[in-house]
Amino acid sequence: MKSYRINNTVISIITALIFSVNGFAQKLPYQNPNLPSEERAKDLITRLTLEEKASLLFDQSPAIPRLGIKKFNWWSEALHGFANNDNVTVFPEPVGMAASFNDSLVYRIFDATSDEVRAKYHEAIRSGKENRRFLSLSVWTPNVNIFRDPRWGRGQETYGEDPYLTSRMGVAVVKGLQGPADARYRKLLACAKHYAVHSGPEWSRHTLNLHQVNPRDLYETYLPAFKSLVMDADVRQVMCAYQRLDDEPCCGNNRLLQTILRDNWGFKHVVVSDCGAITDFYTSHKVSSDAVHASAKGALAGTDVECVWEGYAFKSLPEAVSRGLITEKEVDKHLLRVLVGRFDLGDMDDDAIVPWAAIPMSVVNNETHKKLALDMALQSMTLLQNRNNIIPLKRTVNKIAVVGPNADNDAMLWGNYNGKPVRTINILKGIRDKMPATGVVYDKACDLVENKVTQSYFSQCAINGKKGFKATYWNNREMKGDAVITEEITNPLKLTTAGQHEFASGVQLENFSALYETEFVAGTTEEIVFKCGATGSMQLYVNGVMVRRTNNWRTLLSRVPYKVESGRKYKIEVRFAQLNNWQANIEFDFGKEVDIDFSGLINKLKGIDVVVFVGGLSTLLEGEEMPVSYPGFKGGDRTDIQLPEVQRNCLKALKAAGKKVIFVNCSGSAIGLVPETESCDAILQAWYGGESGGQAVADVLFGDYNPSGKLPVTFYRDTTQLADFEDYSLKGRTYRFMSDPLFQFGFGLSYSSFSIGSAQLNKTIISNTETIDISIPVTNTSKRNGTEVVQVYVRKTGDSDGPLKTLRGFKRIEVPAGKTAIALINLPPATFEFYDTSYGKMTVATGEYELLYGNSSSDKDLKMIKVSIK
């Protein structure tokens, strides 16, 4: 029990003392913390105008000073640490956490994350800062969508393709974030998103209509995790998704939000819209005529809080009431859930009686949290190939080469929806820390995806007789009035406010703008490229003509080709403005692209036998609705799951040169690695490993840690094994409905070898309400201690339409060298639950079931024992 946790009796005493000091008892019921949250909320609702009620349903709710209601923001993120905040602990991306098959460690990580959120929030408020976006006690985490197709750019945010694994992990996340169920106050309000049947593609999510989803797929695959978070974890928020399901947008879908969520599952808390989903009703889906009708439709269906980028449809709720489209009583119903959530956080009470408010800043990125980040990174490491046991590397090796675009890349390890860590151990540093100073030869070798490299012309620019760019800054967003500072910049632009860094001396961290200008005289007639991107508003002008404009909440580099003529002068301007609520970043360079030639790399590596190639993807390539596309990528998704061609070519060149290649693949999704199984001796799937990802990789490569990660997603051979991206049928998708991928779900190698013995059941004939136990012997047949993940799958005999197998139990178990341990796995009645088409619901039917157990989902790795339900 942490020292800052206070029991309810102590809270009551402190409350009484506060009242005594103030000299009076609270005058109004809603101000009395001794009353239940619902009673307080009902009282407060009676004191609000209809316009005020509507405003409290905005994700950025304004203050109502006359009633002592503070400004409140519903949108913060905690996907794998406190996102959009500096100097926090950054844990591995969720898909990597799923590879650990360790939900107890996931719980500890999100308990730690909620500590950091509380500490930073209260420190900010005490410092006079606002409750703003990305700095609040409502966190829109976890993402429990099913990662059904590896092309989806946001699949990295999920816990993989399996509904049971996702449920187990999601429940752990929610419990860690929200705190003990019996506590007086919620630590945070977590959010299950995106409800429901949502997993890409990003490019059509605002218009997509899923009208042929098989009911069995819906109830067995797409809904179980949401049901578990509601019924087993009491999640306090559910976020409805963008797309339509059966012609109705998810945020206006009565079946989803009323029949299933509230009537069947008993959810009684807040439904929030994905950002802009209500305005999509009339701008994209065309199911409403305007904001007035969209607000009524969304609210009547069950949406309580609206998130927007700009222009709330819910602002029209008073007009909708006046026109008879919705009643004020209906508005009150939504507001009640919203206010109960705020009261449950302690948002309306003095911090002195809210134990979580006492969490000190010293907890942020403390040694315990750093260790959690490393432990999870280690457990996420998934060894896919180890030909001739090339790893672990021997300590006697004198020199190795580390090459590849992700080797010396901090930001790649942070994943997406991330904060910025206090420190990052990237993979190059992790390996160097294991070797003598001269033992590592490094070369980036190639880009992630581009087949060319850019020779920078930045140093060839000049303005007013001075080299480089002239930078002018204003402390407003309009470049108006007197400039704060003017200075010269001689290196390619790469500026950020992350870590509280000013763009220049005296420039504010928010509400500022900048102009970067220079002149360039072309030395020859050729095509050059501008490489630029920004978090904020950015425009690129050449000779007064705009050639690129972006307005984005993250930095995504664009490639802008431009033809120049020999001897001609070009005036280049980059205009930038910081956006509300977002950290500011800008990157800019330009020059000539030249073809990559790997001969120089091979010459540099002469005399070195072992090469660690660190490649894969990054969140510059896969992510949420990204405006920048590259060959094989579209809007944050992929159109081809192969490793980018430039990396494949580099690996082939290394192989042809006779090198022993260890491929460390960093990605948030499955990659078709058939060529790499030939060109590489070992393949380590490292995901996006967080702040200590580089140390974890190095610990595995050098044998200081024995890998135990298992794939939470199927690694298909190539894109030809995939159905149409917009087809949500599960036929042929995931391990549950296909059997011939490159690497199976649940697969992962170890430096140890294990033998799975014959399982024993405490009962083989049960009723449909009984729980049984399965005991599975696991023998470590090697000379090294190791950890195995034992998995239990179920298949119903004679179920021709059902999955080939479906995960219903797992257990991580440590087994000493040469010893046998027993994995005891509890199988409750839900283990045997499947969709019954005759009843139209999930049931546990009588009949015979096969329990398949082993260390992956591959048939060759499984044994079988039968159970009968009478």
UniProtKB/TrEMBL annotation:
Pfam families: Fn3-like, Glyco_hydro_3, Glyco_hydro_3_C, PA14. This is Glycoside hydrolase family 3 C-terminal domain-containing protein. InterPro entries: BXL (IPR044993), Fn3-like (IPR026891), GH (IPR017853), Glyco_hydro_3_C (IPR002772), Glyco_hydro_3_C_sf (IPR036881), Glyco_hydro_3_N (IPR001764), Glyco_hydro_3_N_sf (IPR036962), Ig-like_fold (IPR013783). It comes from Niastella soli. Keywords: Hydrolase, Signal. Belongs to the glycosyl hydrolase 3 family. SUPFAM superfamilies: (Trans)glycosidases (SSF51445), Beta-D-glucan exohydrolase, C-terminal domain (SSF52279). Residues 464-606 form the PA14 domain. Signal peptide: none annotated. GO terms for molecular function: hydrolase activity.
